[in-house]
Amino acid sequence: MARAGLTPQRVTIAGAELADEVGLDKVTMSQVARRLGVKDASLYAHVRNLEDLRGRIALLAADEKTIRIAEATSGRAGKDALVAFADAWREYAHKHPGRYAATQTRIRIDPDLAAAAAGPRRAVELTYGMLRGYGLTEPDLTDAVRLLRSTFHGFVALEAAGGFAHERSPQQSWDRTLDALHTLLEHWPPSREGDSA
């Protein structure tokens, strides 16, 4: 029987908070149960197992990150939208490292939960919408989405790992990276012959 007051959402939030504190890969069901003041067995009325919990954390994080990006980019276009998008992405990764990791890790997610989650779909819409402002169409849109994700994730992952030891501040490099991305997106190279979506 489910413990009164526990819900899948409460368990997910507790897991997400723990992931931000100790790292997603270090979260255990026992730690989450202790955080909630319940026995381990009580959690299994709300989440199936650790993988299910991690999938729920990933969906929660996708929703949160997408909301922040949508708010940041609202009413903006071109470079303003790109910078707001990127800054919101990076800020979320800094503030919620465990949750962010869940959005970048291959996790098996319950298909019904995934189908009901708006975050991942909305993230795709926001990204493609911003890039259409640069006049891109397929297959260039998909290539540009992959470039942005690789750049943003690579930067924040290296930053989190202490990989930028040079005296020049990471913020200065981030700003120049966004300048360079904007220039590239404005002058996107033509598709190669035979390219298709």
**Low-pLDDT residue intervals, each spanning 5 or more residues:** none
Total E-strand runs: 0
Supply the number of helical segments.
10
Helix content: 55-70%
Main beta-sheet strand count, sense and barrel state: none
Task: Give the topology string: H per helix, E per strand.
Answer: HHHHHHHHHH
Approximate strand percentage = under 5%
- Outline, from the CA principal axes? globular
Structural class: mainly alpha
Radius of gyration: 19 Å
pLDDT averaged over residues? 93
Distance between termini? 50 Å
Short description, anyone?
The chain is an all-alpha fold. The protein has helices at 8-22, 29-36, 40-43, 50-73, 78-95, 97-103, 111-116, 119-132, 140-160, 170-186.
Explain this structure to me?
28% of the residues are buried. The chain is mainly alpha-helical. The chain is globular and about 60 Å long. It has ten helices and no strands. It has helices at 8-22, 29-36, 40-43, 50-73, 78-95, 97-103, 111-116, 119-132, 140-160, 170-186.
Keywords:
197 residues; mainly alpha; 10 helices; 0% strand; globular
Helices, strands, pairings?
Elements: H1 8-22, H2 29-36, H3 40-43, H4 50-73, H5 78-95, H6 97-103, H7 111-116, H8 119-132, H9 140-160, H10 170-186
Helix pairs in contact: 1-2, 1-4, 1-6, 4-5, 4-6, 4-8, 5-6, 5-9, 5-10, 8-9, 9-10
